Input
Amino acid sequence: MARKVRKFTAGGVWVADSPDSGAGAIQYACYGLACDTEGSVFLSDTIEQADAPIGRIIVFSSGLEYVSDFTDNGAAEGQIDEPRGLAFSTTGGKLAVADTRNHRCQIFSVAYDAGGPPSFTPESRFGKIFAGADVFVSPQDADFDSQGNVYILDRILHRVKKFGPDLNIIA
Output
């Protein structure tokens, strides 16, 4: 079974596929997809390795050529463990990641060096398991609205939480 991203025109005409082998190949399961203001495509992928899944975010050009991937697994700030939903802010440059096994959402600043791959800088993280109003058990998706508010969908708790641009809970 081929695991790939396919790009189509607005009229439904196939344009490109992501690589199905080598550096940019989807290894296990893709959960989230987001495009930035530059047209780059970001995909969350989880690789099952024994008892420890490894999450990564794969970056493709607008033509779906492999650019790089971000894999820094763990629970510290800036590290991810089974990333799922991805979303870019409408103002660009900020990527929200539903960091499922860490029971939180993280916001990264994404910057491009001239001719190089994007860099991911942790900006903030929020949410915790079983403590306080910002509890997440299984965050699955993230999105921004035009005012910069962040929405997080939790599959186990059956709810959507809304956070303001300052990441304080609104609803």
About this structure: The chain has a mean pLDDT of 84. The two ends are 41 Å apart (CA to CA).
